[in-house]
Amino acid sequence: MNKILVWFTNLYAVWVIGASIMAFFIPDSIAWFDGPWIRWALSTVMLGMGLTLKVTDFKGIVMKPLAVAIGVVLQYTVMPLTAFAIARVLGLRDEFAVGLILVGCCPGGTASNVVTFLAGADVALSVILTMVSTLLASVMTPLLTDLLAGKYVPVDVLGIFVSTVKVVLLPVLLGIFINYRFPRVSSKVNKIGPAVAVLAIVMIAGSIVARNVDTIRGEWKLLALGGLMLHTIGFLLGYALVRLLRQSKLFARTVAIEVGMQNSGLAMVLAQQHFSAMTASPAVFSSVFHTIVGSLCAAYWRLRPLDAESASEDEFGSK
After folding, report:
1. For 198-214, how does the pLDDT look when each residue is reduced to its tens digit (9 = 90+)?
2. Which domains are delineated in the chain?
3. Which one of 37, 159, 242, 273 is at 20 to 30 Å from 3 when CA atoms are compared?
4. Distance of alpha carbon 136 from alpha carbon 123, whole angstroms
5. Any idea what DSSP says for residue 56?
6. DSSP string, 133-176
């Protein structure tokens, strides 16, 4: 059973693409998954993330404060600014520009931890960076979205803040509490958690496509290009900027993955709730391309393992 769940989880990108294709040709098959279904699905994903975290994980912030700071700062600068620049360069219509920017303003996705493991990078640091950027999302995501997307449409900063607290912060904190008080329960749930998270994101993505078939039919090339550019540039800049700071290749690989992979599910939910279903379309393409780009990077780096010197040549990264 465990092997089946792992197999299902590892083929995340395949299921997202498959659900999107099915929704495109047979919209009614998944269009029903809307409203509360989507919000509860994402909350379940975030609860699952919280269940994987322990109170002791927060010690990593104290042990490597500067490393965590660099990773989080790059997360909330590289991706939002890159998304804004791509929207301008491609001349995206307002709804798509806002959607792409919203993706860039979201925290790192939990899939980054899996890709970090596959790439042979620093999993512990990846988990900490995901955790910190997620906890900060309730403040950073609405503020950055207002700053960058507000040039296109009015942004409900308070509404996005409240939504992010409800579907991200509270479920994560609840998961951490359950893991602390009832570790045996969380241990059992964690065996199916990743597969449930994949199923939830697949359903959300399919639902967004189903309700935007006509728009996607005419704009899919531009949306695909925007998603591919955003995550490719995110990986490249995340790696390059860390190396420019004279930090280790291991640290650079970890941060590149964390920066390049976004919580597209959160972007879908926030876009649908505070803008429109059409605005959520870029997040669907994002969920596909960040998985593809991340998987390719993981495969490339896995074939090029680092020696001890390359993995510890920094002052405050991974040693």
Report:
1. 788 788 778 878 877 87
2. 34-311 (1.20.1530.20)
3. 37
4. 20
5. G
6. HHHHHHHHHHHHHHHHHTTTS---HHHHHHHHIIIIIHHHHHHH
